[in-house]
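Run Glutaredoxin domain-containing protein through structure prediction, thanks.
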Amino acid sequence: MTHVKLYSTLTCPYCIMEQSWLESKKIQHEVVHVDLNPKEAEYMVEKTGQMGVPVTEIGYKDGKMEYVIGFDQTHLEQILHV
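Sure, done. The structure for Glutaredoxin domain-containing protein is below.
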């Protein structure tokens, strides 16, 4: 895994929970507030078909991208190996 990006809004409680969880696991990540950045919101919907947050984008070294919809801690633990 090379990059973790969390698509979030300022008022989303699950986004706040996921960000806290990522920080507690010392996982470096970028937070994108889609409520403040319409272009990023459009990109998120284009890639996932989802309008809701959180959406987590995992970028791997080989260029593959994986998306986790919602704060799915079990799935995140598996793919992030924590």
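The first helix runs from residue 13 to 24.
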